[in-house]
Amino acid sequence: MRGPLGRITAVASAIGLTAGIALGGALLSGGAASAATPPDLDPGFVTDASGVLGDAAEARLEKQLGDLAAKDGRPELYVILVPDFEDPGNALAWADATALRNNLAPDQYLLAIATEGRTLAISAEYGGDGVQAGPLSEDRILQIEDHLGGDYLADDDWEGGISYVAGELDRVPWPWWVWVLGVATLALLVFGVTRLVLHLRRRAAAAAELRTLEGQKKRAARLLVRADEAVRTSEQELGFVTAEFGEETTAEFTTVLKECRARLDGGFQLLQKLEDSTEDTPAETRAWTDEIIRMCAQTDRDLDGRKQQLASLRALAEGSAATLTRLRTARAEATGIQQDAAERLAVLTAAFPPAALVGVTGNPAEIGRRLAAADAQLAALEKAVQAHKPSAISQAVHEIERLLAEAGDLRDAVKAQADALAAGAAPGQTGADALELAKAAVRAAEASVQARPGEVNALALTRLNLAKRQLAAATASGDPQEAARLAASASDVAAQVQALTGAPTAPAGARFSRAAADDARSERERPVMYDEPSSRQSWQSIRAASSSDDEGRGGKAIAGALGGGLLGLVGGFSLADGSAGLIILFIVLGAVFGALSGAFGGNGGGGSSSGWGGSSHSSWGGSSRSSRSSSSSRSFSSRSSGGSRSSGRSGGRRF
Predict the structure, then answer these.
(1) In this structure, are strands 653-654 and 131-133 parallel, antiparallel, or unpaired?
(2) Would you kindly state where each structural domain of the chain is located, as residue ranges?
(3) Residue 281: partners with Cβ closer than 8 Å, 6 or more residues away
(4) pLDDT digits over 12-71, tens only?
């Protein structure tokens, strides 16, 4: 039937077929163009071209991403879901091209997900060649991609995966200065804990020492030596102040020093009782040592109480020029001291055996060293005067006066020894001669000790005190024979002091004893000697060992703190789930426990042998990730239309 109706029907069918083919071609070509060209993002933050998100889920995500963008210091996240990445087919290249097309800034990240192609990528800026970097590192982005693909998108949890990425971007790492501040705080904490540990250990050691009678005796002897040194130094300084201001002005200071000296004499008598051959009861030992310690403490308080007054009296800074002139004159006058001592010693050496001169043999050389040190202090004083530094002036003046005084004392010690030897060599001695000999011997011993403040141990000081008491008893005795005996004993003890001062042969811990009981002489007539060195250490050795132990434990505490801090760092990264605050807390706690363990436990604590780079990310698609800088350029927050954002790393991640 080829009538008009048939022709119309055929034409209509042809037109419909042509239109259908054209429409299908248009749809196909339009779809191909959409896949080949990175698309424009929809308004808002989520573009769901795959239709896998419901309206409610998309609304929730829009709100979460909007809240993230509204926070200061947080990046923005844009999300696009498409069936597949076709042109370019690489997930990361497609995401970068889409981000560049939509002009995203460095702090704006694009999450691209191919729901049917099962790949994903996050487009980000990492800096380089003048390109501004985003707030997250490439390693952090890779971690986020790993968790997103493996924990969420593999189970088609599209909303949960996008929400997870938004949450991770809400946890931007702290800036570098926060870490610097944390490290500085940790260092201060480690230092404080170490000092506290050492302080507590010293206090515990001191308390343990005081709990034993032997330790109490050592401490009493140690304090007595220090107090004697302080009094002798103050006596030297008072001599200069008296010469400068007169006896009336310094009468109060003279009285205080006399009281201190009398107190120390009593202390040395008690120490003599503790060190003799007679065994003391624990109660006596405790009472005597407590009394010595109390005497020394009172002496320290009396000296400290006058120290500020004496400093104010002298006012060295105001009269520094006159003081410098005075000390230069004193130094010039002291030039002949060394030569005088050497000449006297040469005469004595020719007339007496070396054993008689053991206490003064090295005095000329010591005088030379003190004068040289005084010259150096004079130069320092001149600089301090020119710079108007009161504290430096005071220190230099004190040192110069001390050095010159000790040089004079060393010369006087040679002279006193010469007088003592001359008195002992005189023929036909009487009881009065023996007393004069004892006085000369004690003066020589006193001069030798006076010339060496701080260099004489408790043994020599105790013997000197005994010699002085015996001499005083000989002088006061009305019995000529008793006076002669006491004078001879004082001379013998003074000779022991000279020997101990010049070349000590007895240890600080030696005990005194009399001669053997079978000696025909009486107890009081038998000479005083010291017994064989005991096996116990002197207090100086114990103190040195304690100091060395403290230093060693200080190093162990520091090593323990470092090891504990490293363990805390490793534990923090393992357990704190990336929280910077918790990581720092782990580090601080680890450092504290490590320092305590190192100081008290004997081991400094160790650290982990693994480094930050111990773990590695496998490349997605089999190729390795390189770290080259982005080739794109932009100004301020915009990006150019060419180049790569993501350091050229290949692929994306399959899920």
Answers:
(1) unpaired
(2) 1-33, 46-175+616-654, 184-203+554-614, 218-505
(3) none
(4) 454 444 444 444 444 333 443 344 468 899 999 999 999 999 999 999 999 999 998 898
In the block, residue with structure tokens 């959409």: 34
Is the distance from CB of 326 to CB of 254 less than 8 angstroms? no
- Distance separating the N- and C-terminal Cα atoms of the chain: 62
The 10s digit of each residue's pLDDT in 624-641 is 333 333 333 333 344 444
Distance CA 554, CA 102 (A): 61
Longest dimension (CA), the chain: 181
> 464 Cβ partners below 8 Å, 6+ apart?
442, 445, 446, 449, 493, 494, 497
Provide the pLDDT confidence category of residue 575 given band limits of 50, 70 and 90. Answer: low
Mean pLDDT within 288-309: 87
pLDDT tens-place string over residues 381-408: 888 888 767 667 778 888 998 999 999 9
How far is residue 604 CA from its own chain's centroid? 16
Helices assigned H by DSSP within 102-175: 138-151, 158-169
pTM of the shown model: 0.45
Q: What are phi and psi of 321, to 5 degrees?
A: -65, -45
Q: To which residue do tokens 């205080």 refer? A: 256
Write the DSSP symbol of residue 602: S
pLDDT over threshold 50, residue 341: yes
Residue 238: closest CA among 261, 263, 269, 206: 261
Decide the pairing of beta strands 46-48 and 76-82.
Answer: parallel
Backbone angles phi, psi at 79, to 5 degrees: -130, 135
The fold of 46-175+616-654 is Diaminopimelate Epimerase; Chain A, domain 1 (3.10.310)
